[in-house]
Model the fold of this input.
Amino acid sequence: MGAADATTTPVSGDGGIDIVATGYVAQVKLYSSPAAIAEIRELVGAAAVLSEAPRLLFFCSGGFPAQAESFADAVGMSLFQFKPETGEVTASNQNAEALLRTGLLI
Done:
């Protein structure tokens, strides 16, 4: 998506953040069912303690329930669903649709 400096965080003790890039943090979940809204809220909380206010990205193979999409829209988070077999990424809310069109802007 265009973040050349993206790095993964340690497997444990990551504080709920899996990937860090300039201006962005992301959570990635490999699930067969939708991510819970609590996990979406946790990423907001984990990012709140950072010194800068990054844009929030959440990737889940199982998708998201409607209430998680509404919450993410309200806080400006981008939600993406991905297919682990092919690597295909699709937008799950309006914020994500914009990023898929433009790429990650710094």
Q: What stands out?
A: The radius of gyration is 13 Å. DSSP finds three helices and six strands in the chain. Residues 37-48 form the longest helix (12 residues).
